[in-house]
Amino acid sequence: NRHLLRGDDQYSVKLHIQKIQTSLGTDFDAAMNLSRLDGRSVSIEEMRTAVSTLPFFGSSRLVIIEHPLGKGEKSRQEPFTAMLNSVPPSTHLVLVVEDHQKWRRDQGGWTQVWETLSDTHWLVKWFNTNPQAEILDAGLPDARHMPAWITTEAKRLGGKFEPAAASELSEHTGNDTSIASQEIAKLLMY
After folding, report:
1. How many angstroms separate the most distant Cα atoms in the chain?
2. Angle 177-183-188 from CA coordinates, rounded to 5°
3. Average per-residue pLDDT in the chain?
4. What pTM value is reported for the model?
C-alpha cells in the first residue's frame, strides 16, 4: 500500500495514480478520503497526520505526496522512514518524485540510471526491502521508443496504429506523451 512514482513523464504519473485509485474499489470516495500534499510546503508531522487518519465512510484512504523529499532531505530521512513504517493498512500512500534518467557508463557498456533516486538512495533502498511497497517508473521514453509507445497507447485507448503511422506521429510530438495521447485520441475518434 506504499507506492513510489519516480520520473519526468507527468502523463504516466497521472495514469499510475488513476490505476491505484481505481484499485481501491467502488466504495472509495475521493471527496472524503483523498489527500494531496506538497512536500515542499508541509512538515513531516502534517504528512504523518494525513497518512495516519482513518478513512471516513469507506475502507481506504489515498494520500498523494508530491515532492516528498522537500528541502533538508538528510534531516528528514529518519522521521520520514518512521512515517513510512507506520502507514496503516487502510491507507494507500503515493510518493511522487520528479526525476530524470541519464546515461552512465558501467562494465562494458552504457545503462540508464535515475539522477536522484538511484539504487543507492535511502528511499529506494527502503522501498526495495519492504514487501508492501512498490516503485513505479514513469520516465519519458526516448524519441526512438516513441513509435512503440504510441502503438501501445493506441491499444490502451481501444484502437490500433500501423507502424508507419506511429512513426509519423512521433515525428510531430517528440517524446511528449501527453500531447501524443491527445493526438491518438483525436485520430481514433476521427
Report:
1. 56
2. 120
3. 89
4. 0.85
Cα–Cα distance, 89 to 105 (Å, whole number): 41
Contact between 183 and 169 under an 8 Å Cβ cutoff? The reply is yes
Which residues are paired to 37 by β-bridges?
Answer: 65
- The Cα 2–Cα 132 span in angstroms is 6
**Cell matching residue 170:** 512521433
Q: Rounded to whole angstroms, how far apart are CA atoms 68 and 42?
A: 9
Please give the grid coordinates belonging to residue 27.
Answer: 466504495
Mean pLDDT value across residues 86-91: 94
List Cα–Cα distances, 23 to 18, 56, 160, in angstroms. Answer: 9, 18, 26
Rounded to an integer, what distance in angstroms lies between the CA atom of residue 161 and that of residue 176? 18
Q: What is the pLDDT of residues 140-175, one digit of tens each?
A: 888 888 888 889 888 988 888 888 888 888 888 888
